[in-house]
Amino acid sequence: MPLYKTITIDESTNVLIWKIEESYESLCEGIELTEYCQNRVDSMKSDIHRRGFMSVRHLLAVLGYTDHDLYYDELGKPHLKDEKQISITHSYEYAGVIISDHPVGIDIEKQREKIHKIAHKFVNEFEKDYVAQQDFEKTRVLTIIWGAKESLYKLYATAGLSFEQHIYISPFTLDYPFVYGAVNYENIMSHYDINFIEFEGFTCVYALPGTDV
What we know:
By secondary structure, this protein is α+β, with helices and mostly antiparallel strands. It has two domains: 3-102, CATH 3.90.470.20; 109-209, CATH 3.90.470.20. It contains seven helices and eleven strands. The chain has helices spanning 24-28, 35-42, 47-62, 115-118, 125-132, 138-156, 163-166; strands at residues 3-10, 13-19, 70-72, 78-80, 85-91, 94-100, 105-110, 167-169, 178-185, 188-199, 202-209. It has a five-stranded antiparallel beta sheet with strand order 7-11-10-9-8. Strand 5 and strand 6 (94-100) form a beta hairpin. The chain starts with a strand and ends with a strand.
């Protein structure tokens, strides 16, 4: 079982990451999907997307859940029937979940040069100067900012939220895997604690409400 990494954040919050090495058929063994999720996976044309989807179900099993404990709201946000908070991600050969008593968000991204081409879509004026100072590690920095904003977008789960206009990431150092984030939406400001880890050319970012909130 390729459970790649487990991170215990506090007594109620855990991050699990799966390295996807098995075939789709192998990942289906021992997993019973709801009709809704079976239809979702059947409609996926990409094999890696189907394998990522099933890997998440194995991560749920590690935490004592089945697919029947999971449901999605009208925005596509996942929920657990026991009212624990959950966020899900998968990218290429990695999948991850975070489960907590607190609102949470998680994202895994592959570090790719192409992120420079879309940076203008998610980097705002607050972050632009800091990013411009990164001569040699700009891809890593942009990937962390994107992952942080994706995590906050999942946590906030509000239609109309803009990565560029409403989500702000503070300057940070790659030597210290901690970032502050904020969401300013409809004149309401909320603050978040964000952590990142990097492994094998990937970045995982996860977010929780700020400890001072």
